[in-house]
Specification:
11 helices, two-stranded antiparallel ribbon, about 50% helix, alpha/beta, about 240 residues, 2 domains, about 15% strand, six-stranded parallel β-sheet, Rossmann fold
């Protein structure tokens, strides 16, 4: 069937993130500095220990439920464990979250082919973006920074709808917003479990952009594999 829509993952597909989570420590340190200035009296060692305990529990629960609570919920539980009675809308919680996100953004760059590829696809296909991100505000800021919002007919961020890839709901919601059937859409992403298994389970075609050596590719079998975004232009016609 003719392809009507192309949907993309964001991180390590259109935008590139420095590897091995190098952003995490400096981002958490900036967040902690903000909390100290706001009257939270906890050492970075104590704060980070409790934070990672909370984070790892959230990760474990999310793998089962495929829910995506906002980062502020995670931070709030950390602060509660340290004896601070904030709520999720407290300016300190919001400000600390923003501080983390602003530092994180320093570690994100745009793929050299992103703009040119989206420009070429824009007139020919409906375009969508589906991203797993617990801090939606930061994603919107990045899309604004790199001039990407203009290209997409729908943008879904897991932290805004509390559903994350590979949940079928997030893909079905995107397809409904685009007004296309799953069989008319292709998903492009870099992670087999999120960006290939998820879309395949709802009937979409899939293209893996292989940013690194990918274990399990022979079992999961994306429809196409590309090495660069620019390669996408040559394979879409055969999907």
């Amino acid at each position: 069937m003719h392809v009507e829509a192309v949907l993309f993952d964001l991180f390590d597909t259109l935008l590139l993130l420095e590897g091995s989570e190098v952003y995490y420590q400096p981002s958490l340190m900036k967040l902690h500095e903000f909390l100290i200035k706001s009257g939270v009296n906890a050492s970075f060692e104590d704060f980070s220990r409790v934070y990672f305990e909370v984070r790892d529990r959230f990760y474990s629960e999310s793998r089962e439920s495929l829910e995506e609570p906002h980062f502020r919920v995670r931070l709030l539980q950390t602060l509660h464990s340290l004896g601070y009675d904030f709520d999720v809308s407290d300016p300190i919680v919001i400000g600390a979250t923003t501080t983390f996100g602003n530092e994180f953004m320093r570690y994100v760059t745009i793929d050299k082919d992103t703009i040119s590829v989206l420009q070429k696809l824009r007139g020919e296909y409906k375009l969508g973006l589906v991203s797993n991100a617990f801090m939606p505000e930061t994603v919107w800021a990045l899309l604004e920074k790199f001039g990407l919002k203009q290209f997409f007919d729908v943008i879904l961020i897991s932290g805004e709808i509390n559903r994350r890839k590979p949940s079928p709901e997030i893909f079905e919601k995107a397809l409904k917003a685009l007004g296309v059937k799953a069989s008319e859409a292709v998903f492009v992403g870099d992670m087999l479990d999120l960006d290939i298994v998820g879309p395949k389970n709802v009937g979409m075609k899939t293209i893996l952009i292989e940013r690194r050596r990918t274990e399990g590719i022979d079992e999961i079998k994306p429809d196409k594999v590309i090495k660069t975004l620019n390669d996408l232009l040559g394979v879409l016609a055969n999907c």
